[in-house]
Every structure is written in C-alpha cells, then in structure tokens.
Design a protein that fits this description.
Blueprint (H helix, E strand, L loop, with lengths): L5 H12 L20 E7 L8 H11 E10 L15
Parallel strand pairs: 1-2
Length: 88
C-alpha cells in the first residue's frame, strides 16, 4: 500500500479547504490533546484500521466541546439492503 506523506497532504488540504476556522493536522489520535476542544471532528474510513476502535471513539468524544459533533464513516460491504437499486 502506498503511503502518503503529511508534508505533501497538509499544504494541499490547507490551500484547497482551509480557512481561519479549520485546522488540519497529522497526529497519533490516541495521544492527541487540545486544551480548547473541538466543535467537530471528522474521521473518514480510518476506524476499521485501528487496533482499538472503541478506545479511539471514546478519546475523540472526550476531545469534543459540549454539544460537539463527531462525523465518522466506515466502509460497508455491498449487499441488498444498502444498494440504491435494490428491490429488497
């Protein structure tokens, strides 16, 4: 599997999507702390790769400000129940 360097990705993300209210970073999510907390944390297609997914989610939830939102996704295998063209 090809590894992508944070030195390459972070400047591109900041240039394309950044503004004063968005912070892009690369860190060990299980060790990261922030004294101010976050309004929203997004983790897409990563949880399934972690050795302790439940611990990750608990840590992320602790980093959120009161009323904050965690947005996460995991891949789902194709089956009849989730296909838009399914007749089931």
């Amino acid at each position: 599997m090809r590894q992508i360097s944070p030195k390459t990705v972070l400047p591109i993300a900041q240039e394309k999507y950044g503004n004063d209210s968005i912070k892009f970073l690369v860190s060990n999510a299980m060790e990261y702390t922030d004294k101010d907390g976050f309004d929203t944390i997004i983790s897409l297609e990563t949880i399934e790769h972690l050795p302790n997914p439940s611990g990750f989610i608990a840590h992320i939830m602790a980093l959120l400000k009161p009323g904050g939102m965690f947005i996460g996704s995991v891949p789902t295998p194709p089956h009849g129940g989730c296909q838009p063209t399914s007749s089931s």
